[in-house]
């Protein structure tokens, strides 16, 4: 109970008493009651004073406890700081001792070096004196030899050098001839060994790709839903994918036909989702095709990244990585381009290591050598040149760019990696089962090239070389002049371009020469 409560109760009690006194009208009763109230007041005041004293003592005790607690924490902080200062002083003393020891060692080494320097000076003076004596003796001996031989020292030296030069030249020529002969004997054997070992160490699948995809369905009833009312569904699907969809009497199957494997894959996945979902109408077809195209693009990027990681090739530009993934959906004569590039990369790495070259750089060039076959647009240039320009655009090393551009001889080879890429590309393409073109068709194409050139007047011989990538035409000098030779080369190239089907490009070289032959009898 606090003082305010006591006073309030007193005032209330007094008011009640006054009221009672007025009502009762008795003054004596009022006085007696006031005395009683006074006693109660005094009693209440004593109780309040006692309670206030108790509260005061409690507060003083709490303040003392808080003070002692703060004092203990302060003393603890001071002790920690003192300990840290002592540790710092100890570390400083240790460092001072180490520095003083090093100074003593340095002074000792300095004294030793000064002693050595003095000894070296003394020895140098002795050597100089001996050298002077030797020079005098040498000069005397040379003068004596010159007087005995009748030749000066320079003349004798020149004669000796000339004899040694002739002898060294003779020995060097013999060594060179031996090395050349040995190299000729072992070069072909060593080259065959490297190529055979390289081919044996690379195992690849032999699979042929087609330009059609067969989509299997559960029943022929689905064909009608795919065609739609008056063919609107199939027309919408063909327009969205760019693929010809053939629905015929073949049971439980639909044929997707297109030369672009990416479009065929988009059409196949879109059909699969539409048939599984059951909702087939033009709006739904466009939605599903767009979704599948996005999925295929993501898969292309993922395939490119996974291929680079598998081959241990790092630092490729993201666009080159995307083009590598796009190779999965491109084929050349039925040979999958991504598998072909991986095979060429592994062959290049093995062959480069056998020859002591940079195998990682060779593997990189082998993977990227056909990157020009999968552009987003259709450039009017050979794929090797376009691939080289792409590699240069995305900051590939000059050795890699040259190997890409020169693997079909469109560019001059300037590095040792370029011929390795060319050889490995030929090995991968010529491997049995790699490509669809059979030997008979290949020979027929070469003969057609030669016969086409032979049909022109003035042509005497034709030779298709470089696997049909170059045509050598020999003309008679008396029938064809220089201007006609240039025109003939252009005409043959134009006719081949219009009438024949061939991979890459064909180089036409017209050779005209004049020979003068005589016989001495």
Summarize this structure as a short list of keywords or feature phrases.
about 525 residues, mainly alpha, three-stranded antiparallel sheet, three-stranded mixed sheet, 8 strands
Explain what you see.
The protein is mostly helical. It has helices at 3-24, 27-149, 153-201, 221-227, 232-241, 261-277, 282-311, 318-326, 337-354, 359-368, 383-393, 398-406, 417-430, 439-454, 482-499; strands at 212-216, 244-246, 253-257, 331-332, 335-336, 459-465, 470-475, 507-512. The strands form three sheets. It has a three-stranded antiparallel beta sheet with strand order 1-3-2, covered by helices on one side. A three-stranded mixed beta sheet has the order 6-7-8, with helices on one face. A two-stranded antiparallel sheet has the order 4-5. Helix 3 (153-201) runs antiparallel to helix 9 and helix 5 (232-241) runs parallel beside helix 7 (282-311). It is flat. The N and C termini lie far apart (156 Å).
Unreliable parts? 205-210
Radius of gyration: 52 Å
Share of β-strand residues:
5-15%
Helix vs. strand class = mainly alpha
Number of strands: 8
Strand order of the largest sheet: 1-3-2
Instruction: Spell out the helices and strands N to C.
Output: HHHEHHEEHHHEEHHHHHHEEHE
Q: Number of helical segments?
A: 15
Determine the fraction of residues in helical runs and give it as a percent range: 55-70%
Distance, first to last CA: 156 Å
Shape: flat
Overall average residue pLDDT: 80
């Amino acid at each position: 109970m606090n003082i305010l409560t006591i006073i309030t109760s007193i005032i209330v009690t007094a008011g009640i008493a006054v009221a009672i006194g007025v009502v009762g009208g008795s003054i004596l009763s009022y006085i007696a009651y006031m005395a009683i109230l006074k006693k109660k007041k005094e009693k209440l005041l004593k109780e309040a004073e006692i309670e206030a004293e108790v509260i005061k003592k409690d507060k003083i005790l709490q303040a003392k406890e808080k003070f002692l607690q703060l004092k203990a924490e302060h003393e603890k902080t001071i002790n920690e700081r003192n300990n840290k200062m002592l540790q710092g002083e100890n570390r400083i003393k240790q460092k001072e001792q180490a520095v003083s020891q090093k100074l003593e060692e340095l002074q000792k080494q300095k004294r030793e070096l000064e002693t050595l320097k003095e000894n070296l000076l003394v020895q140098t003076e002795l050597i100089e004196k001996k050298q002077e004596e030797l020079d005098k003796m040498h000069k005397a001996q040379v003068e004596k030899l010159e007087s005995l031989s009748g030749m000066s020292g320079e003349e004798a030296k020149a004669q000796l050098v000339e004899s040694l030069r002739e002898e060294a030249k003779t020995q060097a020529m013999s060594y060179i001839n031996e090395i050349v002969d040995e190299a000729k004997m072992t070069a072909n054997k060593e080259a065959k060994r490297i190529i055979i070992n390289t081919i044996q160490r690379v195992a690849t699948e032999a699979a042929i790709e087609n330009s059609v995809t067969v989509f299997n369905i559960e029943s022929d009833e689905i064909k009608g839903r795919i065609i739609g009312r008056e063919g609107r569904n199939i027309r919408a699907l063909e327009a969205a994918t760019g693929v010809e969809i053939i629905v015929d009497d073949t049971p439980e199957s639909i044929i997707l036909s297109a030369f672009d494997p990416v479009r065929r894959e988009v059409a196949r996945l879109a059909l699969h989702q539409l048939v599984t979902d059951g909702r087939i109408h033009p709006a739904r077809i466009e939605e599903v095709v767009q979704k599948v195209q996005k999925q295929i693009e993501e898969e292309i990027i993922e395939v490119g990244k996974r291929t680079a990681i598998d081959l241990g090739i790092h630092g490729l530009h993201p666009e080159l990585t995307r083009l590598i993934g796009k190779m999965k959906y491109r084929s050349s004569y039925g040979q999958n381009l991504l598998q072909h590039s991986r095979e060429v990369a592994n062959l290049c790495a093995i062959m480069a290591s056998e020859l002591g070259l940079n195998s990682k750089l060779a593997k990189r060039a082998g993977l990227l050598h056909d990157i020009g076959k999968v552009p987003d647009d259709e450039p009017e240039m050979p794929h090797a040149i376009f691939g080289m320009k792409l590699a240069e655009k995305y900051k590939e090393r000059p050795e890699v760019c040259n190997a890409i551009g020169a693997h079909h001889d469109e560019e001059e080879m300037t590095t040792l990696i370029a011929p390795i890429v060319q050889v490995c590309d030929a090995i991968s393409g010529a491997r049995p089962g790699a490509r669809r073109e059979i030997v008979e068709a290949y020979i027929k194409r070469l003969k057609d090239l030669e016969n086409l050139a032979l049909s022109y007047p003035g042509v005497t011989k034709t030779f298709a070389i470089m696997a049909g990538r170059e045509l050598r035409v020999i003309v008679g000098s008396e029938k064809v002049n220089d201007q006609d030779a240039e025109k003939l080369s252009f005409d043959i190239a134009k006719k081949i371009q219009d009438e024949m089907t061939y991979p890459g490009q064909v180089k036409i070289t017209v050779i005209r020469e004049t020979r003068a032959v005589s016989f001495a009898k």
